[in-house]
C-alpha cells in the first residue's frame, strides 16, 4: 500500500512530466516549463526523503 507521501511524490512527478511535454511543444514556453518541472521534481524528492521537514519561504521569519 502506498503512503500519502509516495502518492504525492508520484503526482508531483507526473506534473513535471506534463510541464516538460508542454514545453517541448511550445518553444516560447520551454524555459519556464522546464523551471516548473525541475521545481516539481525537487519537491517530489523532498516529500519522499524528508516528508516532515519544513521549508522557510521567502519573507517568512525563522526561529533561529
What's this, in brief?
By secondary structure, this protein is mainly alpha-helical. It has a domain at 9-46.
Mean pLDDT: 93
Largest sheet: none
What Rg do the Cα atoms give?
A: 14 Å
Task: Bin the strand percentage.
Answer: under 5%
Q: How many strands appear in the DSSP assignment?
A: 0
Q: Could you state the order of secondary-structure elements as H and E?
A: HH
Backbone structural class:
mainly alpha
| Uncertain spans | none
**What is the molecular shape?**
flat
Overall helicity? 55-70%
Oligomer: single chain
Give the termini separation: 38 Å
Your description of this structure?
The chain is built from two helices and no strands. The chain has a domain at 9-46. With 64 residues, the chain is mainly α. α1 (4-25) packs antiparallel against α2 (30-49).
Which helices and strands occur, and which strands form pairs?
Layout: H1 4-25, H2 30-49
Key features of this structure:
mainly alpha, flat
Amino acid at each position: 500500500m502506498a503512503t500519502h507521501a509516495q502518492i504525492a511524490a508520484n503526482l508531483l512527478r507526473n506534473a513535471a512530466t506534463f510541464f516538460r511535454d508542454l514545453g517541448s511543444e511550445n518553444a516560447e514556453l520551454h524555459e519556464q516549463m522546464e523551471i516548473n518541472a525541475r521545481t516539481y521534481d525537487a519537491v517530489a524528492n523532498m516529500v519522499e526523503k524528508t516528508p516532515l521537514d519544513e521549508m522557510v519561504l521567502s519573507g517568512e521569519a525563522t526561529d533561529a
